[in-house]
Amino acid sequence: MKNLRSAGRVLGATVVAALALAACASGSTSSNADNGPITLTLATFNKFGYSDEMLAQYHKLHPNVTVVQNIAATSQAAQDNMFTKLAAGSGLGDVEAVEVDWMPKLKQYANLFVDLTTPETKTRWLDWKTQAATVNGRLIGAGTDIGPEAICYRSDAFAKAGLPSDPAGVAQLLTGDWNNYYSVGQRFSAAHTGVAWFDSAGATYQGLANQYHNFFEASDGTVVATTNPDVKNAFVSVLNASSTSSAHLQEWGTDWNAGLANGAWATMLCPSWMLGVISGNGPKIKDWKIANVFPNGGGNWGGSYLTVPTQGKHTAAAKELALWLTAPEQQIAAFVTTGNYPSQVGAYSNPALTGATNPYFGNAPIGQIFADRAKAVSVTPYKGVKYAAIMQAVQDGLTRVESKKQTIDASWAQVLSDIKALS
Amino acid sequence: MATEAARRGFVLRESLGRWDVKLSPYLFISPFFVVFALVGLFPLLYTGWVSVHAWDLLGGEQGWAGSGNFAFVLGQRQFWVALRNTLSIFLLSAVPQLLVATAIAAALDTNLRNKTFWRMSVLLPFVVMPVAVTLIFGSMFGERYGLVNRTLADIGLGPIRWHTDPLASHIAIATMVNFRWTGYNALILLAGMQAIPRDLYEAATIDGATWLRRFFRITVPQLRPTLIFVIITATIGGLQIFDEPRLYDQNGLGGEDQQWMTMTIYLYKLGWTQLNFGRAAAVAWLLFLVVVAIGLVNLAITRRIATSEERAT
Known about the structure:
The structure holds 2 protein chains of 2 kinds. Chain A is globular, with a radius of gyration of 22 Å. Chain A has helices at 2-26, 52-61, 75-88, 103-107, 127-131, 155-160, 167-174, 178-190, 201-209, 229-245, 254-262, 274-281, 315-325, 328-338, 351-354, 366-376, 387-402, 408-420; strands spanning 38-45, 65-72, 95-99, 134-135, 138-139, 142-154, 267-271, 288-291, 300-307, 341-342. By secondary structure, chain A is α+β, with helices and mostly antiparallel strands. By secondary structure, chain B is mostly helical. In chain B, 76% of the residues lie in helices and 3% in strands. Chain B contains 13 helices and 2 strands. The relative contact order of chain B is 0.12. The model of chain B has no long low-confidence stretch (mean pLDDT 90). Classes of the chains: A alpha+beta, B mainly alpha. Chain A binds chain B through residues 73-74, 76-77, 79-80, 83-84, 86-87, 105, 108-109, 112, 249-250, 252-255, 258-259, 262, 388-389, 392, 395-397, 399-400, 403-406, 414, 417-418, 421-422, and chain B through 57-59, 76-78, 138-139, 142-146, 161, 163-164, 249-253, 256-257, 268, 272-275, 277.
């Protein structure tokens, strides 16, 4: 019902947009972009937490601007769409969301994006967040969220397996390195609850990869993935654990979504933005909780930016919108809706953030938990131009073993040749 | 003087007439060639130009590469897997599709009640958006929670690994293609069948030919031009298949082991995710050659079948 309604709303918004566009087309072309009625398209993916109410609020503040949001299903779809239309020179939204993993590819073409710098933006975000979107002093992305990671777990399944099931107890149980996480997984699996320990080797591997500074690439951009022993060790250890502990459901797939809805696994790495994914996919599962802990310290997975492509017609108005959406107040609102943890320094002391709780996760104090998890992050991974493509090759390799198509060795050999083919 | 002017006028008219005879036909057919040059020939040649350069999708030309892009692509395991997948999906979709389409067309060609209703219902799947078709079929073919495997389990059969096993994934994708295109081809074949003179059938019936004999001796040979058209378009469409494999899983890159990565997906992957437009253009040209080669083979086969039938009658 909820889906139907929002589909109706999207359709309605599209019709309104079409009418507005038609109105624009028939109006005089010399009208001042700042005063005439304009429609801005905001292209996002997954769940950014920019609700219809928030966009309506913007319309109230700027009566001449109507914002229409287009939401792509996955970050991959958004990425492909972005590069296709950048190459075509038209067709992109006025404001386009970009994920941190493919930001490096865009930084090569910084001139295709509007410089978002204002006096205020210099101190708005965490330093590393700003750095990752800056090219020669040109800020091409306004940070939205970061992804400090906790562990989400299902308390009923834990209790059934004879493990502690309260958040504090689980946090204590899982304090340690990845081997500890895997060995608790073995204890859990030995209890035969009919539920797997984690969803997939691929998702778990993301957690490991984000804890190294130079995992796939050296800081000068040379690919080290084929020689870095950490890459292979992580590959092998995750797969060894996967043989007994994984649900073998590849992340974001149809089966993975259905698995989440059916409660097919008991734990998963939980970057803040994952909260919205879990509660959205599994409304019938009542026992998801959040433990304030992460294997091997802290980690950050993902996080996004809003960019303004120069190909848009109303770049000035679009820049204003992007900066408004990424202001602390709006990102706190998004955090409350979907759990996307703000990257804005000014948000961290705000009681609306620190006091936030989430009813789906047993009223977990998510404001406090993710503030702690953000503080635990000690490494900023270097992500170069080829990061996303190498990660895809490694993820494919993990899936090949999980789907029992190949042995670990054969799959690793193919990963190596796939990475070499990227040069 | 008057005769001089008249003579000049006559010469002018005569030369205009000559020009009219010589030029007008070219002018009349020129729209086709202009359009073809713009949307057919130019992209083809430009792709060829790109394929011999190092070319970044957004950065443009980066220098001469010669045959480097072709050598790289031909040396890749993924290229040959893509070729295998493309041919396999093409055969699995085109062959059953055309056989079933011909059968449906033959059924619709008989004296049915509510002809228009039946013809329209055949076309219905074609009206559905390919994206919607793929999304629905994609979740039906889910390995663990999909409708197909659950039904198989209910009747006591093991699950089929639709997203893991190459052949199973090809069959699943071919099913989507067939769902969409069978009705369309059936209608074109039906139009061809309707154009066959009815007295041929009457004469054959009087001579005592059975329904089957009439079908193979009259319908099929008479249908030859239509069949050639349908087979050629199915070949081109089948070899360039993109939407269905692209939307078959969430990544759209043809599976973790490239189980259903077709040539066009490989091209897309090189050009748009790796931003290497030169290599993508090389794949495009190789695909073009494959399409031409298979198109010629099909043409030869179709001609042969039809003419041998004619000779027999």
